[in-house]
Amino acid sequence: MARRPLALILAAAAAALLAGCSPTAAPDAGADSGAAAGGEWPRTITHELGETELGEAPLRIVSTSPSITGSLLAIDAPLVGSGAATVTPLTDDQGFFTQWADVAKERGVEVAYPNLTLDIDGVDALEPDLIIGSANGGDATGDAYEQLSEIAPTVMLDYSSMTWQDLTTELGKITGLEDEAAERIAEYDSWVSEQAKLISLPEQPTTALVYMGADGSWAFTPDSPQAQLLTALGFEYAPVIEEFTSEGQSGRGVDVLTSENSAAGLKNAQTILTVAMGGGDPVADFTGDPLLANQPAVAGERVFSLGTQSFRLDYYSAKLTVELLVDTFSG
After folding, report:
1. So what's the pLDDT on residue 311?
2. Is residue 257 classed as helix, strand or coil in its secondary structure?
3. 261 near 244, Cβ under 8 Å?
4. Using an 8 Å Cβ cutoff, are 79 and 3 in contact?
5. Cβ neighbours for 265, distance < 8 A, ≥ 6 positions apart
6. Quick one: the chain helix, strand, coil %, rounded to 5?
7. What is the rounded distance in angstroms from the CA atom of residue 37 to the CA atom of residue 110?
8. Are 134 and 57 spatial neighbours (Cβ–Cβ below 8 Å)?
9. pLDDT tens digits, 241-277
10. Residue 23, by phi and psi: left (phi above 0), alpha (psi -120 to 50) or beta?
11. Angle at 185 between CA 85 and CA 313, to 5 degrees
12. Mean pLDDT, to the nearest integer, of 111-134?
């Protein structure tokens, strides 16, 4: 079976990149306007690379992190531009992630630069009064913090250490849209509670992962956003067996299993959900691995897709992931 190059899959994962645009996933907002910011100004924001003082509520925000862009859109922030990722199965044709690309288009969000290649002049041309980016990860722009700060007040976050709800809350504090952030999270929580009632659970417990072929699997940890999403829907989450994980390679929400150790590390999982990072059929790829033939979920034909948007969760991709799970397990 043909596979996408591992380097491309890893680049998409590192850039996040996890994480459709159905009507239920998009809050209402005008194409050229954001929500009205509130709170007290000026305010000082403490972030990964220091402190930034904001004199007034921002009216023109540029995101240099595609992984953060979706959460800004979800709270109706006045976003005028965003860096774009390399085009992969996770993006549209200009590098905006599929879960929020239509929303960005509707609101007139411009591509500040393509292929995760920071263009200072491209950012400057959008005349931002606030720049928000990532201090680490595949879309990090921390090395250019001083240059970006010469254009506009700049805030650098570590989204990899947060759930999407935590990131949304933090962005609300930065932009003065605290109420919008709280409302979006409360709306999601209420909606998930109703969606959970529609699911007939497969045999439990469940583990979610990214299958990397000959390079093994990245299994999401119990404290990862993906596991928390599943738990909210009633799934019992099974961590991998620690003794089989690759020493020094786990962390940031995943445990790494080599190909040889995957079956043993996943033996407690009666159901497996696999992310389609590289496109194609992730279920066929996983179940077709001869080293996994005796894994309980494989032997019991209980391996299912978790979709393409679920690697880096934001409001939009979380809702699409829940909708996929309801569709898969309804009845």
Report:
1. 85
2. strand
3. yes
4. no
5. 217, 219, 240, 241, 244, 245, 255, 257
6. 35, 20, 45
7. 22
8. no
9. 999 998 755 556 899 999 999 999 999 999 999 998 7
10. alpha
11. 30
12. 98
Give how far the C-alpha of residue 325 lies from the chain's centroid of Cα atoms, to the nearest Å.
Answer: 17
| pTM of the model as a whole | 0.87
**DSSP letters for 92-134:** -TTS-BTTTHHHHHHTT-EEEESTT---HHHHHHT--SEEEEE
Angle formed by the axes of helices 164-175 and 315-329, to 10°?
A: 150
Percent of the chain with pLDDT over 70: 87
173: left (phi over 0), alpha (psi -120 to 50) or beta: alpha
Task: Give the pLDDT band (50/70/90) at residue 14.
Answer: very low
**Concatenated DSSP letters of 205-231:** -EEEEEE-GGG-EEEEPTTSHHHHHHH
User: pLDDT tens digits for 281-290?
Assistant: 999 999 999 9
Which residue is listed with tokens 């940890």?
A: 221
The dihedral built from the CA positions of residue 102, 171, 306 and 201, taken in this order, carries a sign that is: negative
* DSSP secondary structure letters along 43-65: EEEEETTEEEEESS--SSEEES-
The percentage of residues in the chain with a pLDDT greater than 90, rounded to a whole number, is 80
What is the arithmetic mean of pLDDT over 223-238? Answer: 96
Cα–Cα distance measured from residue 155 to residue 133, given in angstroms and rounded to the nearest whole number? 6
- 231-254 core/surface letters (b: 16 or more CB in 10 A; e: else): ebbebebbbbbeebbeeeebeebb
Q: Which residue spans within the chain are E strands per DSSP?
A: 43-47, 50-54, 61-63, 79-83, 110-113, 130-134, 154-157, 206-211, 217-220, 254-257, 271-275, 303-305
Phi and psi at residue 130, to the nearest 5°: -155, 135
Residues 6+ apart with CB under 8 A from 50: none
CA dihedral 131, 137, 143, 148 (to 10 degrees): -10
User: What is the widest separation between alpha-carbon atoms in the chain?
Assistant: 61
Asked if 142 contacts 154 with a C-beta cutoff of 8 angstroms, the reply is: no
